[in-house]
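User: Hey, my collaborator sent me this sequence without any context and asked if I could get a structure. I don't really work with proteins. Can you help?
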Amino acid sequence: MSNSSAIRVRFAPSPTGYLHIGGVRTALFNYLYARQQGGKFLLRIEDTDRVRSTPEFEQEILESLKWLGLEWDEKIEHQSARIDRYREVAKELVDKGLAYEQGDSGKVALTFRIPKTKVTFTDLVHGDVTYDSNEFDDLVIMKSDGFPTFHLAVVVDDHDMGITHIVRGDDHLPNTPRHILLYQALGWRPPKYAHLPLIMGADGTPLSKRHGAVAVSAYRSEGYLPEGLLNYLALLGWNPGTNQEILKMPELIKQFGFRRVVKSNAQFDPEKLRWLNGQHIRMLAGEDYEKRITDFWKTKGPLPDKDRWRKLITLYRPRIETFGKLMDQASYCFNEPEYKDAAMLQEIKSNQTSIGLLRQLFEILRDMGDFEDVHLLDQKTRQVVETAGLKPKDIIHPLRFVLTGGTASPGIFDLMSLLGKDACLKRLSAFIT
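Assistant: No problem. I've predicted the 3D structure and written it out in structure-token form, which is a compact way to encode the shape of the chain:
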């Protein structure tokens, strides 16, 4: 194992847009490695793009990281506060004859003279990688507006912050030999590198808005759990070496390692993400589940009374994959059912046996007290079909359709208790008359 106390990694987003799923995966792998090694996870805001960087995007990035639980260890560094430092280092390279001025009309850029050599480094994912710098053009390090390019800024920042390991996407792999040459020119020791596979959509192109939501804030607003999102992202390009798929943060930290990061690109699968998120919803402790789903929904509008709300979220917990799907799944609990399946509607309406059973059930239910006793509802309903010499499904299937407008729902008697006597009788009456 490395010298644990010395491990320092960083996540360095640019506040030019919302925090992207790909960025979160990079932040997560940095975080897991730092926590596993007992090192530091640092945050740097790369805000030298004066046109596109905004405080609003920065705030969204910070809030998303906090919501995910990816807490950083030291004060946040901002590149915009370090412009003088970049100019100082660039001047040092010019003074050493390792960089030169170029430009016209009084606007001068500084360009690093690329040494002609072979650059070999050992990537923690890809192994030994070699580039021939004879194929590189010289590298602009300070633009004519006096601001650094990405290449100079990250090298200076990573050196000054004491970064020991740089974990970033494969798209940065061609930048690494150039950065190593800058480190060497400045007499600094380069960090170690790990380049992660990119995340692709189902069509094999880099993940973008056309594949659906890509911003963390969008998943948060849809009712995903941070645990579910992080579990899924950890498995995009990495695996624990077993068939285990449900992993909480302590297990991810314990099992993470670069040797199980795959070299090929990962494919984003929204269906798998939803499934994993549903598993994490069902793993929550009861009180935690109630608090989280209630906090989520109370921002959307008024909720039912506490007892009915608790009954609702308990009944639908095994069925929802995100908090946001609750009202879709249970829409008939708040609105009259829509009978969109015309064929099913006609089949039940024209079946005199089904209508007869529903009429008998209506009479029995009307004479019952409230519908709190689920066992009694079950008993009374089954009596109707048993008396007619039929099977429970002969009444339960049509009853479910009448009450919900569909053919799938939680247990019908639990659902009847949730809907309440008045709603059930009203729907039955409207249907059979």
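In plain terms: The chain has 18 helices and twelve strands. You can pass these tokens on to your collaborator as they are.
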